User: Which sequence fits this backbone?
C-alpha cells in the first residue's frame, strides 16, 4: 500500500506525481497552484472524498493502480539495455487500470513463444504522448518507425504532422483477421471497423456523466450531450481535461454532433472555480464527465448518479497500427493483442469495452457515439483538434 486515507493531496502528489492525473480526472483541479496545495494540506484524503461523494477505498485503489503502473513494472517492461538487435518493435500507451494485467499477459505470451523477439515499451496513458511523438518525428524513413503502435485518441494516429504522413504512404495494414467486430460496435447504428483496412482497434474508452443530485438542485437530470450544452449548465461541469485522449475525442465528437457552437458551449459549461478552496465550501460540479471505469467508485444509494447519455457514450478508441511489410513476424503478437484474452482484460478489469466478437462487454446493449470513418477521412484531424481547442477555450475564457 502506498496511499492512506489520512494523507493529504499535496503529500500524495508530491510523493507520487503520477497520481496527479487521477485527481484531475476526478474533478480536482488547480494542483499546479501552490496556494491550492497549501489549502489541501489541512484536509485528509478521506474528508475530500467524503465531500466529493466518492468511495474513498475505491479511489485509493485507483491511486494505487496509477502508482503501480509507473513504479512496479521494471520486471515486465523492456529495459533499454536489454533491447535485442533486429527484433520487432512495439511502442504504445495503455489505460492505467489495465496496463499491469495486460503487460503480465503479454509477458506470459512471450514466454510461451520464445521464438518471437520483440522490444516493447508500453507506458501508462497518464505519461502522455510526447515520447511517442518524438519517435515518430525523428523517423526519416519507414524502417526507423516502430513496427507496431498502440494508443487511444486521434491526435497521434491521424494528425498529418505525426503518423498521418506515414499512413498516407500505405505502410500500415489491419492484420487482425477479424471479419466482424463485437455487435456492440458493428450494427445498424455504428461501425468501428476501418473500411480501408489500415487501422485496427482492440477496444474503446467510453465517456459518461456522473451527476451530483445535490448540486443539480432544481435543474432537470441531464439525459444527453445536448442537455449539458444548455445555458442552465454553464459553469457547472467538470471535464476530463487531464485525460488528453478522451478530452480530445469529446471535442471532435461534440463538433460532429453540434458544430463549432456546440464546442464553444461545452467550454462555457466548464466549472471555472473547481479548486479545493471552493470545493471545501461545497462548490461542486453538477455533472462530471469521466471514463466509465470511474463509475465503479460511486457509492450505491448515494447522491451521485451515473447517466449513460441517450445519444450514446462518446468513445476514444484504442487503436493499433501495424506495418504491412512485417505481417508474417507481427501476426502472432497482433493475434494476442486483438484476441479474446486481451479483450476480456480490458473489458472486465477496465470497463473498456472490447471489439472482439466473443467478449461479453459490461456495456452490452448501451449506445455509443462514433464520428465515423467518412468524417475522419474527410478532415485533417490535427487541424480540427486545434480548432476545437480554440473554440473550447473561447467558451471557457479562462484556460
Assistant:
Amino acid at each position: 500500500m502506498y496511499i492512506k486515507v489520512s494523507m493529504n493531496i499535496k503529500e500524495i502528489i508530491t510523493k507520487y506525481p503520477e497520481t496527479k492525473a487521477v485527481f484531475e480526472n476526478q474533478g480536482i483541479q488547480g494542483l499546479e497552484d501552490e496556494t491550492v496545495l497549501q489549502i489541501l494540506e489541512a484536509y485528509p484524503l478521506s474528508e475530500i472524498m467524503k465531500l466529493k461523494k466518492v468511495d474513498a477505498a475505491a479511489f485509493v485503489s485507483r491511486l494505487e493502480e496509477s502508482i503501480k503502473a509507473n513504479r512496479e513494472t521494471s520486471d515486465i517492461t523492456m529495459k533499454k539495455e536489454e533491447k535485442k538487435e533486429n527484433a520487432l518493435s512495439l511502442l504504445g500507451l495503455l489505460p492505467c487500470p489495465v496496463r499491469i494485467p495486460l503487460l503480465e499477459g503479454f509477458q506470459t505470451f512471450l514466454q510461451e513463444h520464445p521464438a518471437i523477439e520483440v522490444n516493447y515499451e508500453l507506458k501508462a496513458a497518464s505519461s502522455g504522448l510526447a515520447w511517442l511523438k518524438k519517435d515518430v518525428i525523428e523517423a526519416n524513413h519507414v524502417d526507423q518507425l516502430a513496427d507496431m503502435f498502440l494508443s487511444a485518441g486521434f491526435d497521434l494516429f491521424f494528425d498529418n504532422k505525426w503518423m498521418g504522413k506515414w499512413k498516407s504512404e500505405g505502410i500500415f495494414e489491419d492484420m487482425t483477421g477479424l471479419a466482424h467486430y463485437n455487435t456492440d460496435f458493428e450494427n445498424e447504428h455504428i461501425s468501428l471497423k476501418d473500411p480501408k483496412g489500415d487501422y485496427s482497434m482492440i477496444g474503446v474508452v467510453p465517456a459518461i456523466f456522473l451527476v451530483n443530485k445535490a448540486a443539480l438542485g432544481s435543474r432537470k437530470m441531464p439525459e444527453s450531450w445536448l442537455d449539458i450544452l444548455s445555458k442552465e449548465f454553464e459553469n457547472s461541469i467538470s471535464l476530463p481535461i487531464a485525460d488528453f485522449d478522451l478530452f480530445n475525442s469529446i471535442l471532435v465528437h461534440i463538433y460532429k454532433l453540434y458544430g463549432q457552437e456546440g464546442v464553444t458551449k461545452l467550454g462555457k459549461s466548464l466549472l471555472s472555480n473547481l479548486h479545493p478552496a471552493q470545493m471545501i465550501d461545497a462548490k461542486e460540479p453538477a455533472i462530471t464527465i469521466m471514463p466509465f471505469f470511474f463509475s465503479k467508485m460511486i457509492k450505491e444509494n448515494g447522491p451521485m448518479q451515473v447517466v449513460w447519455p441517450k445519444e450514446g457514450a462518446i468513445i476514444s478508441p484504442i487503436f493499433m497500427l501495424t506495418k504491412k511489410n512485417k505481417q508474417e513476424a507481427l501476426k502472432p503478437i497482433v493475434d494476442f493483442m486483438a484476441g479474446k484474452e486481451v479483450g476480456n482484460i480490458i473489458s472486465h478489469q477496465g470497463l473498456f469495452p472490447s471489439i472482439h466478437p466473443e467478449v461479453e462487454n459490461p456495456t452490452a446493449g448501451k449506445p455509443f457515439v462514433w464520428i465515423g470513418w467518412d468524417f475522419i477521412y474527410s478532415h485533417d484531424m490535427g487541424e480540427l483538434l486545434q480548432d476545437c481547442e480554440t473554440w473550447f477555450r473561447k467558451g471557457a475564457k479562462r484556460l
